């Protein structure tokens, strides 16, 4: 059941993210979250869901919406990816062309290209999956202060989405549970700049 207070919180979050991305309420440059650059290193074994080698050139000049997840995740990952799918469905093609939604395999030893390709069949076709050596995946996660821990077959990973600029700079960390319409509004704002 929809609660008015829950709806107001979602609207407030969307407004706060829009202000962050647009330069704040007073027109001053928006403060950027502190983190390193998220770069996709060439020659380090990263591949997409088709097995094609992946590096920074693949994302040149485009924003990225990054999510760290794994295919055996029972709830958080499919929910987040469905939210992304619904938000992407709301974007016009011209804006969608300026964005690369990325699922980074938090469990790369189990989530190879073929597994990721089958998993992504359920979600928006623009989503690119990335897998590779554990150390490289962990370095990508560390670049946005989102550690991944693997133990006894369980993968602890961040539930948030990361909006990353063309140069690999972290523009925003979007909360787990963001509504699709709020995510779409945030993406429209970021992509319209």
What is the number of helical segments per DSSP (H or I, 4+ residues)? 6
> What is the SS-derived class?
alpha/beta
The amount of beta strand, in percent, is: 15-25%
Oligomer: single chain
Terminal Cα span: 36 Å
Explain what the structure shows.
The chain has 193 residues and is of the alpha/beta class. It has 6 helices and 8 strands, in the order H-E-E-H-H-E-H-E-H-E-E-E-E-H. Helix 1 (4-22) packs parallel to helix 6 (180-191) and helix 2 crosses helix 6. It has a 6-stranded mixed beta sheet, covered by helices on one side. The protein has helices spanning 4-22, 76-89, 93-96, 113-120, 134-143, 180-191; strands spanning 47-48, 63-69, 99-105, 128-131, 149-151, 154-156, 161-164, 170-174. Mean pLDDT is 85; it is low at 1-35.
Task: Please describe the structure with a list of short key phrases separated by commas or semicolons.
single chain, two-stranded antiparallel sheet, 193 residues, globular, disordered N terminus, 6 helices, 8 strands, six-stranded mixed sheet, alpha/beta
